[in-house]
Amino acid sequence: MTIKVGDKLPESKFRVMTAEGPQVKTTDDIFKGKKVALFAVPGAYTGTCHKMHMPSIFLNAYALKGKGVDSIAVVSVNDAFVMNAWKRDTDQRDEAVFLADGNADFAKAIGMELDASGNGLGIRSKRYSMLVEDGVVKIFNLEPNPGKVEVSGGDTLLSQL
């Protein structure tokens, strides 16, 4: 199954770092009853993700929230410890929740897994952005080239609201 506009996100589990250590958050915990801007990247700290995609999100965070977005989420196939360090290094104003999809379970459940094993990265997530309202995909921007941020950045999603 490849996710599309109008689909409800499947039940999945993420890891989120808290003061007590990694905690499980379900799809419902993140999306139920909320309007969420979801950004997926192939890997924390990787060149395009770190230098292009993340700045596009945080430069537009206030404006996204000004358009009715309740929360911003970033998901990647990394563990909760890496995602926590990446949040520390990129999210200076604590504007997003960083979701660890360590085994690519969410990416696979929505048909967004990316086989990057040729580059030594294993299974990752494709690069995309979504607007999700109460668990239902309302806007979906799949990046055709995982090494670029042309349609999946914060500026594009903002222009669609």
Automatic annotation (TrEMBL):
MF (Gene Ontology): thioredoxin peroxidase activity
Keywords: Antioxidant, Oxidoreductase, Peroxidase, Redox-active center
Domain Thioredoxin: from-to ranges: 3-161
Protein name: Glutathione-dependent peroxiredoxin
Residues annotated as catalytic: C49 (cysteine sulfenic acid (-soh) intermediate)
Function, in words: Thiol-specific peroxidase that catalyzes the reduction of hydrogen peroxide and organic hydroperoxides to water and alcohols, respectively. Plays a role in cell protection against oxidative stress by detoxifying peroxides.
Lineage: Bacteria, Pseudomonadati, Pseudomonadota, Alphaproteobacteria, Hyphomicrobiales
InterPro entries on file: PRX5-like (IPR037944), Redoxin (IPR013740), Thioredoxin-like_sf (IPR036249), Thioredoxin_domain (IPR013766)
Organism: Afipia massiliensis
